[in-house]
Amino acid sequence: MTVENGKPEEQVSEEAVAAEHETVEEFVLNEEGGVPLGDEAEQSAGSELQQQVETLTEQLAQAKDQTLRAHAEMQNIKRRSQQDVEKAHKFALEKFVDSLIPVVDSLEKGIESAEQAEGSHEGIIEGMNLTLKQFLAAMEKAGVKQVDPAGQPFDPNFHQAMSMVPNPDMESNTVMDVFQKGYTLNDRLVRPAMVVVSK
Questions:
Q1: Signed CA dihedral, 99, 117, 194, 89: sign only
Q2: Nearest-CA neighbor of 192 among 161, 160, 155?
Q3: Tens digits of per-residue pLDDT, 35-61?
Q4: Among the three residues 88, 115, 145, which one is the final residue of a domain in this structure?
Q5: Which InterPro entries match (predicted)?
Q6: Same domain, 111 and 158
Q7: How far apart are the C-alpha atoms of 126 and 132, rounded to whole Å?
Q8: Which domain holds residue 171?
Q9: How many domains does the chain have?
Q10: 3-state class of 143 per DSSP?
Q11: Pairwise CA distance, residues 199 & 196, whole Å
Q12: Under 8 Å CB-to-CB from 90, ≥6 apart: which residues?
């Protein structure tokens, strides 16, 4: 066995074969489109990973946005449904109240007629007044309020002007007389008060 450069001949030959084999593998990989070796390969892999991370981050942000929008829409639907139910409860009596108002009008007219009639009708008047108070109290418990605006400023939201009359003793646009009282149900107008307004 001979020694060359201080190394056995067999060892030098094996190292040379290994180096040559490694060079051939690198060449084949590069030629066949395999993963390139060295710093360029690491940079390319890092760039691809960065693009994937950015794409996934964008998709996640879009999914979060869609989820938040869907949640907000559900909350709006729920709130609108609750409001509709509340309105239905508050104003379900509107038609019933509308049919009771003429009864109140009749009682009030009856009391006025009894007060103007000749003779003693105090018992009848007192009984009718008590009935009217009970009736109005029962309606008020259901959210119905009487609008009697005599002496108050004219409000077109709750009053309907039948005529305007000059009156130096009152401020302009003040209700002088009430022909017919108005009514509200839970602060919503059922019937406006018919009034005479000063000018």
A1: negative
A2: 160
A3: 444 567 677 777 888 888 999 999 999
A4: 88
A5: GrpE (IPR000740), GrpE_CC (IPR013805), GrpE_head (IPR009012)
A6: yes
A7: 10
A8: 93-198
A9: 2
A10: coil
A11: 10
A12: 143, 185, 186, 188
